[in-house]
Amino acid sequence: MISGSVGKTSTKDAVAVALSTRFLVRKSEKSFNSEFGVPFTIFGVESPWGNPLAWYSVMKSALGLLLLPNHYPNMLVLEVGADRPGDLARMLRIATPNVVVITRLPEIPVHVEAYASPEAVREEEFSPAYALAVDAPLVIPSDDQYALDNAVRTPARTILYGTSNNAVVRISNVDFFESEGKVVGMIAKAIISGESRDIIVRGSVGRTQVLPPAAALATAYALEIPSSEALTALEKYEPPPGRGRLFSGKNGSVIIDDSYNASPAAVEESLTTLKTFPHAKRRIAILGDMLELGRYSVMEHERIGALADRSADMVVAVGIRARAFAATPRVGEALWFGNSQEAATALVDIVRVGDVVLVKGSQSIRTERIVEALLADPSDAVRLVRQEDKWKQKS
Prior knowledge:
By secondary structure, the chain is of the alpha/beta class. The chain contains 14 helices and 15 strands. Helix content is 33%, strand content 21%. The longest helix is centred in the first third of the chain and has 16 residues, at 52-67.
């Protein structure tokens, strides 16, 4: 079971790949991590949305599970997420974990507006660990103090991944991975049981891109899968859409598509990636509203606005809350648009050769529309987030 505030879907995908060498694996599709998404994964069906016939198919699959249990996978990799207090408690009544993997638990997590405090969000996101049996594996980031402090309250066997010296899977030398003078991904050293191996993640950029494979290697270690075997499997790992994915942009630009969602911690990491991206002539940060921050919204938008000013030559703000990004006293140029469609129309004529363009925003801001407008090859649109008809039909 995968839980945490940032990086759950990428970690779920990486864990599923690493475990596939020894198990018949079924994983949560996309980011289906709700009290509906988890049962859909258990039944092995797609989300029926509002289609009555599709709901009938779900019922048939549930019945088939009872009648044909021998055809069921022997490993489920479930992503779980909380939008409201009590969400994870309800999911833990549906599925009890044998292994829990925790991703980052930041200072100001997403969905905090629905909770009494950031601490309450982090407590809920960590709660699957309390459901583990004695000595069951709990895989946590060695660089997250909250996860470390709470791990001592569980009966689980803690396995660490991250940059700390005491991590079972220790990551170092994280850098951009280049081929023929172009950035094509990320590379890092992973030290496991005293042996150093390379982790290469292709197609996406950012220091956080190497953490899902590290978590997957730690999970494989917990289940006694040789690291060499897991590393070979992870060569097939591909980060999900909208998570730092690289695309060729119009007019010779490069796009970093981080349009899946946005929280302060995730935007901060993305801006660091933009600031350090090699060979850039101009760095453009296109940033949409960060939603569900409640009373922390104004403070965090102002803080990220100042950080964006230090990280980019041009900041493009999209949405009412994001106006703070453009209003911050600036060294570079700033633009503001009310929505993604307006921004997409205007930016086509602004990007140029050598530009590196970061695109990030909360889901309902739909910043993938900006990415789509800036693609050099329109056929790449199928690799973006929210391309299903149901999403396309939404305004």
